[in-house]
Amino acid sequence: MRKIVLFVAMCCLSIVVANAQKFALIDMEYILKNIPAYERANEQLNQISKRWQGEVEALAQEAQTLYKNYQSEAVFLSEEQKTKKEEEIVAKEKEASELKRKYFGPDGELYKKRESLMTPIQDEIYNAVKELADAKGYSLILDRASDTGIIFASPKVDISNEVLTKLGYSN
Q1: If both were cysteines, with which of 69, 77, 120, 153 could 81 make a disulfide (CB 3.0 to 4.6 Å apart)?
Q2: Please, are residues 162 and 130 in contact by the beta-carbon 8 Å criterion?
Q3: What is the spatial distance between Cα 110 and Cα 117, in angstroms, rounded to a whole number?
């Protein structure tokens, strides 16, 4: 009985070894860091973001100034004037909030700009990885930068430099 179990185990092991698949790892952060177009796009996004953040902060500051002025003048204003000033403050705060949502919201201008700048770079990397996978027979290529489940990986299976070479960036 023991020999049969051992024989079955050996057969299963040989089947697994025979069907072994090739795999590789890439480090997307490393690849992106070595692509000048990505760095330029990131810098452009940072500049746009700072400019838009300044616009939003300016509107918020205007609302804050209106509120401080209102507080200092409130004792001298009639109820009608108070209501008018309060509505003006609320409108300015709403304007700032809407501008922030327009620029930085889930479907905001910054998201659209990031998509337009980054998608071509990501597509280029994906195509290079796919070509390498087809050429070298890899069944699976993982991104070690985004997969926190990888505890250790041999540098032998990291093909990040090959991807960069395929893209035309020598290291």
Answers
A1: 77
A2: no
A3: 11
* pTM of the model as a whole: 0.71
> Quick one: DSSP state of residue 158?
B
C-beta of residue 160 within 8 angstroms of C-beta of residue 26: yes
Question: Which secondary-structure segment (H or E) carries 63?
Answer: helix 36-73
For the chain, the domain total comes to: 1
Phi and psi at 143, nearest 5°, equal: -95, 110
Residue 14 within a domain: no
Give residue for tokens 């890899």.
138
Q: Is 96 exposed, middle or buried (0-12, 13-18, 19+ CB in 10 A)?
A: buried
Burial class (CB in 10 A: 0-12, 13-18, 19+), 165: middle
Q: Quick count: other Cβ atoms within 10 Å of Cβ 43?
A: 10
Query: What are 39-88's pLDDT values in tens digits?
Result: 999 999 999 999 999 999 999 999 999 999 988 988 888 899 989 999 99
Question: Residues in the chain, how many?
Answer: 171
- Domain membership of residue 151 (yes or no) is yes
Q: Is residue 11 part of a domain?
A: no
7 part of a folded domain: no
For the chain, the helix, strand and coil percentages under 3-state DSSP, each to the nearest 5? 75, 5, 20
